[in-house]
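name: query_chain
kind: protein
chains: 1
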Amino acid sequence: MKYVIYYRVSTEEQKKSGLGIEAQEKYCMDYIARNGSHAYLVFRDEAVSGGLRMEDRENLVSAIESLKPGDIFLISSRDRLGRDVIQNAMTECEIEKKKAKLVTVNQDDSMMDEGLSRLMKTMVDAFAQYERYLISRRTKAALACKKAKGERVGHIPYGYKLDDKKNIIVNEEEASTLENMYLMRKNGLTFREIAIRLNDLGKYNRPDRDYPVRPWTHGATSRVYLNYERLCEAVPSLVSR
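structure:
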């Protein structure tokens, strides 16, 4: 038996500070110390929304694939698994198919019967989903206020850039990469296969201060792929290529 530990943080700020991961790590390691030492594997999804589907979270998929019968899939809290009732249920089903057990550190249901345990899990997931909705609504309200003041808001979507620090224009190099993604997807490639193909071609993700070279991952590819449709609206010539 081994522990498969899964950590998730949802924002780039949490990813860089490490605070979210450190707190989850403490909870999980304390749990292991209390319940006997066993081998463990650690998987992290950083700067990944809890609303994403399981298949769009690369390291969650890898964590589940690593499970063997009798293993324990360990998370610090249910909202680290996700903030969507249906997606969490599907993820837990995949864990059970591996004949492994999902354990949540801050939710001890060992004294509950199966029916009550499932009810409590559904309630916890429902509240997490509602919290995600509230966060989204507050964020949209704040962004609308900034836009009304003429301020630029949010990060610049992949496929665009700033010309004079005020206006967002099409980034031709990134637009070309998005077009390649679209064509590969049209030819039946998965997002994982697309990421591998782009990296082989030397067409990497947008660099930042901490990562001057950022290879594509399955999750990043699926997220920015949606920008292709927005680019086609901005640059109609892309549609006919």
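note: The chain has two domains: 3-128, 160-238.
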